[in-house]
Design a protein that fits this description.
With about 425 residues, the chain is an alpha/beta fold. The chain has eleven helices and 17 strands. The strands form four sheets. It has a six-stranded mixed β-sheet, sandwiched between helices. The protein has a six-stranded mixed β-sheet with strand order 8-9-7-10-11-12, with helices on both faces. A hairpin with a 2-residue loop joins strand 13 and strand 14. Helix 10 packs across helix 11. The protein is elongated.
Amino acid sequence: MALPLLAIVGRPNVGKSTLFNRLLGRRIAVVAPQRGTTRDRVYGRLQWRGKDFRMVDMGGMEFGRQEGLAAAIQRHVGRALAEADEVLFLCDAQEGVVPVDEMIAERLRTTGKPVLLVVNKADRGPAVPPEFYRLGFTPIMAVSALHGLGTGDLLDRVVQRLPARPGAADAEAAYVVAILGRPNVGKSSLLNALLKEERMIVSEAPGTTRDAVETRLQVNAEAVALVDTAGLKHKRKVKSPVEVFSMARSVEALRRCDVALVVLDAAQSIARDDRRLIAKVCETGKPLMLLANKWDLVRSGSEVRLKAATARQVPMAAFAPVLAVSAKTGFQVGRILPAARRMAQAMRRGLSPQECLALVQPAWQTAHPVPRLRGRAMRLTGARWLAGPPPRIELAIAPRGPLPRTLLQYLTGRCHASIKLAGIPVRVITAGAPQG
């Protein structure tokens, strides 16, 4: 049974995301003075007075003829309202009641959901301007999301009104998968294809996704957290404060994930920003899978040539499997999460000393020339797994001494070729080598 859900609604720029972040006690939603900063539904979980519940932030409610991105935002607002157990209707104390507020009030009455009217930006005190009573909701609470005034009393009121669901809890995610890529390669479309629903807003305009949005999915009785991120690009191209925060949220998603999926545009060659991103993932030592999306646009391509071309252009990711997919048609999308699960499990489980030795020994025996130390042939006497990120296979050598870099690279490459370690950025080192 899912936790109760509180939806924060209101017209654009009344402080919904600021209040969302304030109540959660951390910055999750992107906040900026511009209208329409929030687009996708952003969820968070919190506990107050011993009661657990979820909140959802979303784009501002607007009316009138809408097309494209604006229409998609309003569809997601409607879905959030349908999911919600209680609605927190946010208005602006400094601007007072405007016609759009009255239209939103009428819309909320038709939902049949309990509505708590909250007047935000009451920075000078908790008094509610009398004009807000004409919206027809009582009680009314005044808060300042920016300064935190009245938010404790607001949460007290919220938990009193939310339905009681004894024992309700969200399952802890078995592993976290981050979907990364430069703008407009189809990350949100791919997430929607994985979920088989329109969870993320998709538009041809680059930069549609601004928040790092986490969604839970049940796969083979396991809860998987999928995190869609804003398109990552070079810091020289990041200009606005919104983009700065979006990039920070994407980097945070990479830091906390168990598996990184880097989405590429199969209809284009690998760009410089793609290579920068892949290099950044490799630096973190996280399992990696490369997804060549929009494969339906490639008329005369083969996956063999795709993998060969990718290996040439991003040699630092030679360990990563490459999969041609199409979010539009669903081609091979079903193979993504099982592969991510195998990588997450392999990263956590590692290999026993016997498995490490069995993996490295054949490569050692075929290496030429045999490494020597002061004229004596060096022998491989053992190997063990060192947990990462990045994970390492540490070799025990007799007589003990450093191995040539080319030999270590050769042994590492042979490890990457193992099916057991597909996508795992394992490195081969010698006993006593630096662990950084």
